[in-house]
Amino acid sequence: MSEVQVLLEPQYTVKIEQNLLERVQVPHARVALIADETAAKYHLTKLVASLEAGGSSVKVFTVPSGEACKNLDVFAKLLSSLALEGLTRDAAIVALGGGATSDLAGYVAASYLRGIAFYVCPTTLLAMVDASVGGKTGVNLIEGKNLVGAFHQPKGVFASLETLSTLPERTFREGAAEAFKHGLIANPALMQPILEPGFNAESSNLETFLKAVIQVKADVVAIDPFEKHQRAFLNYGHTLAHALEAVTVHKLPHGEAVGYGMHYAAIVGKILGYEDVTGHTKAFLNYQQPSKLPNLGFGDVEPFMARDKKADSEGVRFVMLHEIAKPNLERVRREVLLEAWDEFKILF
Ligand SMILES: NC(=O)c1ccc[n+]([C@@H]2O[C@H](COP(=O)([O-])OP(=O)(O)OC[C@H]3O[C@@H](n4cnc5c(N)ncnc54)[C@H](O)[C@@H]3O)[C@@H](O)[C@H]2O)c1
Ligand SMILES: [Zn+2]
Description:
Blueprint: E1 2-6, E2 12-17, E3 30-36, H1 37-53, E4 57-63, H2 72-85, E5 92-97, H3 99-111, E6 117-122, H4 125-131, E7 136-141, E8 144-151, E9 156-160, H5 169-186, H6 191-195, H7 206-223, H8 238-247, H9 254-271, H10 278-288, H11 298-306, E10 317-323, E11 326-331, H12 334-345
Parallel strand pairs: 2-9, 3-4, 3-5, 5-6, 6-9
Antiparallel strand pairs: 1-2, 7-8, 10-11
């Protein structure tokens, strides 16, 4: 087993191993298990059995697959269900699923009785390397992604690697975007393994690779848990990504939007005279093979970029790479964004 410590108060551990779901136990008599309905089909039985073997009584709530669960309706229904079940403060929420499920379940845990314990069993690559670590929880509004939420750290994360083998190839490649991004902003050695032929859920070095990728996230979160500064660097590529997700009404999945968004940010950086990383981001898009974008104009995405959470009263701020592994948060002029859009648009 590999472990990454997230050095916050209180500290918690991300455990990474094959078949970990068979050993997940938590010190709570009652557990509300919030499970993505697709992930549940493959992986729920093992998890329930191990939680029960550890002495927890488990009530399962399945939620619609993926982003369809990440909204205020599902959130409100879950809260009512927990209240009807009579769950008390010493109960725990356990999430089983991808980032959408863990964001939703974490926000339920943050809100119910003003906060109860929360554990994550991520079942997508994206959730393992990014969403399950760091305590950002929340849901979407029609007006934009992740606009409502809370910081609520998990008490433990159990990345059980065999769950990745039931992921569609496309969803696996989607998650690789966040891993590639961690490489670009902090540890370039993490980029090459993703681009090597045969990088997939069965790769023999996956546990070691994921440990290194998760370490990047854990380090950033420990320095800046509430995103006052450095944590925003994890949003490389996300300003356009969130706009593309909103404008396509989530037809474009997050990881693919991030793939596109990183390339756009790289073009912006090149125009500003920073290190040209477009070769890397283009190589990533070649690996990822994201879905084609609809015919969009700058005017379609600009209003959503303006609502990005990194925006302040003076405008939109972008994470820019001055060099690989040297990120910075800065304002970018509209003319530059527009010029970059024209180059970006050639892609679709
Ligand atoms: N909280 C954070 O710090 C953070 C960081 C990054 C991303 N996110 C959020 O995470 C979400 C994206 O997460 P995601 O990429 O995991 O997507 P997701 O949760 O939407 O899951 C993607 C798809 O995979 C399916 N699935 C999940 N596990 C499976 C399995 N083991 N086998 C087969 N199918 C499975 C789901 O049903 C869904 O259809 C976005 O909402 C994004 O905003 C949050
Ligand atoms: Zn992301």
